[in-house]
Amino acid sequence: MSTECDLVVLGLGPGGEALATGAARAGLRVVAVDKHLVGGECPYYGCIPSKMMVRAADLLAEAGRVDGTAGETSVTASWAPVARRIAEEATTHWDDQVAVDRLADVGATVLHGTGRLAGPGVVEVTAPDGSVSTFRASRGVVLNPGTRPARLPIEGLADTPYWTNREVVQVTDLPGSLTVIGGGPIGAEITQVMARFGVRVTLLEAGPRILGPLEPEASSVVADALVADGVRVMAGLDITSVAHTDGTFTVTLGDGQVVHSDRLLVAAGRTPNLDDLGLETVGLDPTARTIEVDERLRAGEGLWAIGDVTGHGAFTHVSMYQSTIALRDVLGEDGPPASYHALPHVTFTDPEAGGVGLTEQQARDRGLSVCVGTTPLEQSSRGWLHGPGGAGVIKVVEDADRGVLVGATVVGPAGGEILGHLALAVHAEVPVATLRTMIYAYPTFHRAIESALDDLS
């Protein structure tokens, strides 16, 4: 026995929820399925709670910058209000009823359970009680299964009570010391938060530097900021084993060094939730790490995929962007195809580190005629006025043959906001000659863009 519908959405992270909402509002009979919480990782275990943590830590840092610039101050850090805000304001104690009601109010059928493809347009949903329902979707199926924290093949790690992003955002009492494995955005942000709340933190990164995908200049500025916050940053290393004995974690490195801490956070990589999704029933490879899609997010006839599993960046804004394009295609509407040449990303450390488009090395690897311009943010008028906490850099990458920017990086106070100007330039392929004729307000951080453009060579 099966139930007829128009569309099934498997996975209700931000993009899946938005697409299901739009399809239901358009009059489609929508079945929306998620194994966990409607809204996905971002509002409950990722972007939102972590940025509440970042905001609190930044306030402590700003208070510490009063001395010598605005008088004297003394602040006593407390994690209690941070934990309360995350539990009560951000996640409603990790309850998704509000999100479920939003979808139901527009006419979607919301199911908590494990969804699995059982052929073209057919989905089986196993409820928590073990019962199975089958749905046949006349329009098709949208896959948005997301990712989960990767399990690292480190000896002994699986036998320890380590944290991932899911546990660390639920912490109510801070440890005295913390080891963080992984110097990507999550690792860097949580490292700085914990350090500013008085936790002794060691950050371990296997690559040659933290925030490896960013420009080297950006990684260097952020690493210096972490060190200034008291973090021990160690990069270019191997981890041979992890143990947990008598309440203490012991991480052994390849060179024989040993790191001890009260807690361990593993923030190194994500695994796509493609296992047991039934991909083989629709002709797709069940062992692949991503689902190949076209510019309309089509993975096959009557099948779309959006979000992390498409391989275009594990960002909420990418999933939301893709959901709009996929929804148009589901509804048979025209519109611009997906394009990722101006994909922005921001790491919310202090200073913020953001990038858009290609790095210098990526541009050179593509054989472009590359010109690069950089400027230290602290040497700008606004950076100098800002004083403590004003360090940063702006870097622009030009395709000299076309005279347009193909990439840019901003590190500094509100770096993600400054990046918006450059993201527009890369997206719209605004000629560098035109950017040079703009009037940049004084004294602003973004005025330093003009200096970076002047440095192009």
| Helix share bin | 25-40%
What is the CATH first-level class name of the largest domain? Alpha Beta
Total helices: the number is 14
Number of domains: 3
- Strand content bin: 25-35%
Gross morphology is globular
Instruction: Quickly give the structural class.
Output: alpha/beta
Radius of gyration: 24 Å
The CATH topology of the largest domain comes to: FAD/NAD(P)-binding domain
First-to-last CA distance: 68 Å
Largest sheet: 8 strands, mixed
Task: Walk me through the structure.
This protein has helices spanning 14-25, 41-45, 47-64, 80-90, 97-105, 165-168, 185-196, 216-228, 316-330, 360-365, 381-386, 415-428, 432-436, 448-454; strands spanning 3-10, 30-34, 109-112, 114-117, 122-126, 132-143, 147-149, 177-181, 200-205, 232-235, 239-245, 248-253, 258-261, 263-266, 270-272, 298-300, 303-305, 344-347, 352-357, 370-376, 393-399, 404-412. By secondary structure, it is an alpha/beta fold. The chain folds into three domains: 3-39 and 96-148 and 271-330, FAD/NAD(P)-binding domain; 157-268, 3-Layer(bba) Sandwich (FAD/NAD(P)-binding domain); 344-454, Enolase-like, domain 1, CATH 3.30.390.30. Strands 1, 2, 3, 4, 5, 6, 16 and 17 form an eight-stranded mixed beta sheet that branches. The longest helix is centred in the N-terminal third of the chain and has 18 residues, at 47-64. It is globular and about 75 Å long. The mean pLDDT is 97.
